[in-house]
């Protein structure tokens, strides 16, 4: 091991006060009567868009509406529920699809030129209007990042109250990349003027389905 | 307690030399509240200017001196939150270099009060409403507000005396004094003071009230830029309760 | 090394104060942050208890920092990351350059990172022939202007839209209008998108390191953190050793407080947890992740009176609430870390001798302590630094002599009374309605009017006041007749008084012209 490592650790040990003074984990929690309502209110307040659907089937219909309204010609889609197994080309024949992990070709180049990216979500945080997306097989980081529009299909049962409950419920290994996305990319770096869509998507549309 | 109705006043060096009328007013208010006031004449400075500029040994010497002077009294009252905070928060650790110093300092700290605090919480004094009282705005001085948690007391006294209080935007924003800061970096200090006075001015109040002589002295440096009267809480209350 | 003496600090402060655009930009931004912070925190139940908990967690982590770092390292290695340790800035920059060279990188895209500012990574990369491109919009603007950040969170706070339009025009080679800020932002999006896609390496800091999983957390609003860690094939994160926390429970509390304290958002737009590089079967992501654990003087603060400063999470709340920062903005501090945290941290990192003015760049109002999510007692540390300056002779001997004699004098009540009485005589020609009228050039208080000594001190008034009938409402006013001290007394002390007064005058004037 490097000498830098040993030297730093030695210096740290010299200064450390030691003892076990770690506080018990923070357990106070916010209570939201209606997680979906809070999620919707926060997300729309963050310039995100919200569509409710009764079922996964209806969520796909709503997705079709959104893509039609966008006039989307090139769409990248993660191969995950509720999209996995859906015959996209048959359902929406006018669109060039890139299904992550299945379609041949340069994913990055496709994402960079896509009109929209469609993903699922592992969780939705009601407090902050966030959806969490994870990396993995069939799950592209760039699908929710490079296209100008990100559409996330989220099962209502994935709603949790906040990052605290998310962390407490977490178990086992984390994927290499987990991102909580709270609305579209934004900046106010020029004269404090809000501008939407700095590097990430300019529109974030969440389709929340199920009860 | 030998006589709970006797208090010592620590006027602070600034009041002693620059605005003695604040001390006079404080003494009269304490008397009106039913107290006998003693003025230990050996007093000079609590040591805060030296403590704040890093001269710990000098600050400790002056702290020890003040401790010796004020220790015999049952209660010590100061017409200034910053110096009161110095005694209450800093003396115990500054005096640890003397045997028993911390314990003595803590004992003194426990019976040291800022004036409005003493009048409201110890004396339970409430001024009668004056026939004509001015509209005022109140500056929350930093140490009094953040170290002693005081500010509601001043406002309660002003209201009882008949004043209407018009709050300025961020009344707890520093006036720019900061002791020697105001001489070491006067450009910044002055800009802060002008901002403070500007905000006070926009309230339309007739009087800008502060319970701290330091803030008052600092803001008076720009008094010529405002039509407002700048008054210490004690002075205004004393006038209104004659 | 940038040196911040009293002279340079005062000169830069005066420039900042005289800059109306800067003043309105800082006022506007900080006021918005203050309001939004209050609103965002009000949303949390038990927020004060949560801050206490957070502070306790940070303190407990520092108490066994080496263990947590070792666990972090173990877990990060297990997840496939490379972990490097750097004692100082030179080591840290060499590690980053080494990784870049190994991959033949010519272009590096960077997410906003205060640690990389601290180690001057851009300059080192440039020198090594690797072009660093800042991709946070504000940082990019500051980089194009070849300046340093004016604020920890909003680096280009001080730039007008016109200045930004000029910088972008030069960069894209087409004339751009300053009228439309979203359009300017879109130009930056286009220009930087090309860089993201072309860069061989992405560089970031890390807001948090989570020991139990070896994860780093990146927080951004623009998405630059996600970009540099997702698009290029190699990702390097430089993290201060103090940024680690034991568990995800701890990280979640950290995140609940970070954005709220910083920009007043409940959570930033993107909160990314990175645990190792892309895994087998992952659709995309960097093939290599390097984490550089950077000490840079932090280990030396552990166990000292300044340890608490290591609890800082760089939220910028202390800047937004500091009345001094609000007048002078970040660049006056001469370092990327500005405001109250900079005033404490910079002298600790780089030496009091180089940054003598910074511990004095505060009125000790305590607003920073009040708003710090970790309740770091910055005022206490500023006081300790000042005491160190005195002890180490950073404060010049003449001033030391002056302060010490003033303290001595205040220990001798009669002599002090005598001297002030002399002052009362000497000030007479300068008296005006509200203070002394001193020519600006000679006034140590600048444009503020100096206070005058009262005609009589409280000591002199006491006998009459004591004679007043006690406890009577409506007591007669004390006679305020001016009674000059006797000529004999004046003569006796004139020599003793004039000398220190002249010395004082001289010193205070020299301060302004030093260096």
Give the low-pLDDT segments of chain C. Answer: 470-485, 511-515
Percent range of helical residues of chain B: 40-55%
What's the alpha carbon Rg of chain B, rounded to whole Å? 17 Å
**Structural class, from helix and strand content of chain C?**
alpha/beta
Describe the structure.
The complex is a heterotrimer of chains A (211), B (242) and C (515). Chain A is an alpha/beta fold. Chain A has six helices and twelve strands. Chain A has helices at 3-15, 35-45, 56-70, 88-91, 107-113, 163-169; strands at residues 49-53, 74-77, 96-99, 116-119, 123-125, 130-134, 149-155, 159-160, 177-181, 186-187, 195-196, 203-209. In chain A, the strands form three sheets. In chain A, strands 1-12-7-4-2-3 form a six-stranded parallel sheet, with helices on both faces. Chain B is an alpha/beta fold. Chain B folds into two domains: 6-122; 135-240, Rossmann fold (3-Layer(aba) Sandwich). Helices cover 50% and strands 12% of the residues of chain B. Chain B has helices at 13-17, 20-32, 48-52, 56-70, 81-94, 101-110, 115-122, 142-147, 152-160, 181-184, 186-201, 213-220, 233-240; strands at 6-9, 36-38, 76-78, 112-114, 135-139, 164-165, 207-210, 229-232. In chain B, the strands form two sheets. Chain B has a four-stranded parallel sheet, sandwiched between helices. Chain B has a four-stranded parallel sheet with strand order 6-5-7-8, sandwiched between helices. In chain B, α12 (213-220) links the parallel β7 (207-210) and β8. Chain C has three domains: 1-43 and 316-394, no CATH class; 49-301, NagB/RpiA/CoA transferase-like (Rossmann fold, 3-Layer(aba) Sandwich); 397-513, no CATH class. Chain C is built from 22 helices and twelve strands. Chain C has helices at 6-17, 20-42, 47-63, 65-78, 89-102, 114-118, 121-127, 137-144, 161-172, 181-198, 224-230, 248-262, 298-301, 317-321, 323-328, 339-350, 367-371, 378-391, 397-410, 413-426, 458-467, 487-513, and strands spanning 82-86, 107-110, 131-134, 201-204, 208-210, 215-220, 234-240, 244-245, 270-274, 288-294, 431-432, 435-436. In chain C, the strands form three sheets. Chain C has a six-stranded parallel sheet, sandwiched between helices. In chain C, α9 (161-172) runs parallel beside α10. Chain C is globular. Chains in contact: A-C, B-C. Chains A and C meet through α1, α5, α6, β9 and β10 of A and α2, α3, α4, β1 and α8 of C.
